[in-house]
């Protein structure tokens, strides 16, 4: 299963917010056996987001979009996804009720803040989703996520991304298997061995710089036997101090 991750937000591009969502999602998808083929960050630009969603939905098995959902003026992601599929925005009654209940719970828990700022929100602006999409009720925040065909949209708050991804994680099962080998050998000493491994086995072998004084070799494939054979072959030719699956 090939997946693309699209993170949205001017604040991410400016360096004001770390893109932890993409890293976390990529890890979860890989663990599920899916393959992450693209990770891209875009500004809060409705037309640009719509263009990428439209094209990527045709190319990849799934597209995950995070950020830019909500009712503030810079939240244009839902509109962009609706544009990509030529859909209108609609409000599901279950989603509207959840938004109202979430706001009511916040009011009750924060009466001084509400009184000080005369807090009022446009419920429909926060609850609106593309027509025909499957709503994902947000257990951690105000704004819902949604699924439209093969596009999954989550708000940008990391805790909300994690909570909503848990609702759909079973939809990202794939055939990918991997094993990571930790070695104290310098990368330069393994070039020939890695080239041979790539040509001998139907796997991908990635070499990644040292962490805690060790380099990492990640063997990835869709055939568990091929991965195991490649790992055994590498173990005979590279000094390995730890193995992770």
Order of helices and strands: EHHEHEHEHHHEEEEHEHEEHE
Indicate the mean pLDDT.
92
Give the overall form.
elongated
Largest beta-sheet characterization? 6 strands, mixed
- Per DSSP, the total helix count is 10
Strand content: 15-25%
Low-confidence stretches: none
Name the quaternary structure.
single chain
Describe this structure in words.
By secondary structure, this protein is an alpha/beta fold. Helix content is about 40%, strand content about 25%. The chain has 10 helices and 12 strands. The protein has a 6-stranded mixed β-sheet, with helices on both faces. Helix 3 (about 45-60) crosses helix 4 (about 75-85). It is elongated, with a radius of gyration of 22 Å. The two termini are about 20 Å apart. The model has no long low-confidence stretch (mean pLDDT about 90).
Chart the SSEs and their pairings.
Layout: E1 2-8, H1 10-13, H2 20-31, E2 35-42, H3 46-59, E3 62-66, H4 77-84, E4 89-90, H5 93-109, H6 111-117, H7 123-127, E5 129-130, E6 134-136, E7 145-148, E8 151-154, H8 158-168, E9 177-183, H9 191-200, E10 204-211, E11 214-221, H10 224-235, E12 242-244
Helix pairs in contact: 2-8, 3-4
